[in-house]
Amino acid sequence: MVIECFQDYESVSSRAAELVCEAISENPGGVFGFATGSTPERLYELLVTHYQRGEISFDRLTTVNLDEYIGLAINHEQSYATFMQHHLFGHVNVQPDSIHFPAAVPDPSVFEQLIQNKGGIDLQILGLGSNGHIGFNEPGSPFDSRTRVVSLAPSTIQDNARFFDSIEDVPHQAVTMGIQTIMEARKILLLACGPAKADAVARCLQGPQTEDVPGSCLQAHSDVTVLLDEAASSGLNK
Ligand code: GLP
Description:
Elements: E1 2-6, H1 9-26, E2 31-34, H2 41-52, E3 62-65, E4 67-69, H3 80-87, E5 99-100, H4 109-117, E6 123-126, E7 148-151, H5 154-160, E8 173-176, H6 179-183, E9 187-192, H7 198-206, E10 224-229
Parallel strand pairs: 1-10, 2-3, 2-6, 3-5, 6-9, 9-10
Antiparallel strand pairs: 4-8, 7-8
This protein binds 2-amino-2-deoxy-6-O-phosphono-alpha-D-glucopyranose.
């Protein structure tokens, strides 16, 4: 695992953009796994800039997103499909039929099959929940889990309430890639910023590997790069 620490969110995002651009340039027909949440927003803005400058193209890429809420219309302003459209897909030349999200119907395993058929995920971008979740794999998620319907932890509902008018509007279920699905990606890029992530970062990167801390599975992956700002790295033993 390579851990890189930066002074602030902007530097983390620039480095992430550099690594993603490199990966797209090396593998322009690859399968790229995207994440939502506030953390990768600036990364996506920078990728749009690199695209506009003609430095990268998305036209041959296949994209697979980590997760999606259940119970929101696809065009709901807080659906992850809308998020990706707004922050990245709507501004670059990705082919609409190359964009994929997990879905509860007809069957979450369809998404697993799709990933397999495309040859597996080349690069998976991840954020981190304050409780150590990756995707929507909450504490207690089996390390051998695959794409499935899950219930959100109360702390996740609380964390994500800031995006909704009220906490009552936050869905209680989602469909997410499993831990095993994520671990099968050839490369993983994890981003975490801000003091609210410090504890989760320390437990995921330096604590025991346990299903109680979903992100701790990443210690067993052979090609993970972690980008942190100072605040998120503050709980690590240097
Ligand atoms: C959300 C998403 C995760 C994301 C995480 C952190 O619930 N399901 O994929 O990484 O929470 O979000 P943020 O970056 O806004 O802190």
